[in-house]
Design a protein that fits this description.
The structure is a homodimer.
Chain A lengths: L2 H10 L6 H8 L3 E5 L4 E3 L7 E7 L2 E7 L2 E8 L4 E2 L2 H4 L8 E4 L3 E7 H10 L1 H27 L2 H11 L3 H4 L2 H8 L3 H12 L3
Antiparallel strand pairs in A: 1-8, 2-7, 3-6, 3-8, 4-5, 4-7
Helix pairs in contact in A: 4-5, 8-9
The structure holds a DNA duplex.
DNA sequence: TACCTTTCTTGATATAGATCAATTTTTTGT
DNA sequence: ACAAAAAATTGATCTATATCAAGAAAGGTA
């Protein structure tokens, strides 16, 4: 499946676009291939694009007093970008980095706003997309707050085993809120030496 | 200021409604006064309403293995409700409880959906409201993850001193992620005996 | 293939914050 | 205003996880 079809499926799952709307909307997106380890945005920059991850993995993180905290990952079929910066077009507090080679689609701020102005179906897509992201973020907040490190490890391990293949352990450790050492020890207890 | 004017100001700050739109929209909201300590929704129920807090304070929390985790508070001018349940009309994982007597406006699910269908301006309001909530939630996630208990206490203390008057300490403790005992000790260090 | 860099592992030790327990203070209901 | 209940305080411990340190494994590069 090509990237635009992939995108169309994702958008359509939340709000139906007519062929005409889709034609206009889809023409605004560009393809970008980014090598592993590159940043698509860093703290202080203003997010000019909204991204769709067609293939590969990216990581969002913040730096706090030099400590790197992984906040989330995006894979196939996820949208990404520094939302805190995009909506108000002011500098971001986030970094987003590729963890593998990544194939992205991206749309510029002005284009997307024009699409929202022009098509109610897209305004709706935006509303529902944001609502779902919000709900997911709420779940994650509960996750981080109400489980022990061990429980968080197990939940990651049971719910997203594939992620162990895709993302370096130190980032997963930070994501679930523990040190790489603790993560490694817990991993060993479950999997042993393999 | 009456509750509906309060609501109109809040909605207008994100998306302008015409007088006609407002007339239709505002007619769908009901006023409710709820006594302190009541729940407006509890785990397992399906959220039928979207709320606007005109006056008073509410607390959202989850119960995890019997442990009560405060996830957020809503005050004057905030919207509230179990979002995880409302959008998809399925049972919620959250509880929302009044912490003081509260004056609310509420709109039913079908009415709100009809408003989204009918008015693009409201669809836009929904999109931007959700986006802002999402950004706020992201900030909060970083907060909980990258600061020590002491730093979290200080940030709450410096950024929202008013909350100490409004919300019982044990809920604040849970909100910033520590026990009431730890919270009390930190409070003493800053304020002393008063 | 060998070299260099980064990531992961493992052990020893330290510590922030939790837990347990016993008042004291504040709030609530009558 | 008083009794009962709930919340907050304080002290004494305990423990899950962090930190520190050093070696092993994995990955990239020439």
């Amino acid at each position: 499946m090509d990237a635009l079809t992939h995108l169309r499926n994702k958008v359509n799952s939340l709000s139906k676009l007519t062929d005409q709307e889709w034609e206009d909307f889809s023409s605004r997106w560009d393809t970008r291939v980014i090598e592993k380890g590159q940043h698509i945005i860093q703290v202080g920059q203003t997010e000019k694009y909204f991204y769709f991850v067609h293939d590969g993995v990216m990581r969002a993180y913040v730096l706090n007093k030099g400590v790197d905290v992984s906040v989330g990952f995006s894979y196939n079929g996820d949208f990404s970008g520094a939302y805190d910066s995009f909506l108000d077009q002011k500098p971001t507090d986030w970094n987003i980095q590729t963890i593998s080679q990544v194939e992205l689609l991206r749309i510029g701020f002005a284009d997307l706003m024009e699409m929202f102005d022009r098509y109610k179906s897209l305004e709706r897509w935006g509303r529902i997309f944001n609502a779902q992201a919000l709900i997911g973020m709420g779940r994650r907040q509960v996750e981080v707050r109400s489980f022990s490190a061990e429980e968080r490890f197990d939940r990651l391990f049971n719910q997203s085993p594939h992620i162990f293949q895709l993302v370096p352990q130190k980032y997963l450790a930070s994501y679930v809120g523990m040190t790489p050492e603790t993560f490694s020890r817990m991993r060993r207890q479950r999997i042993g030496k393999e």
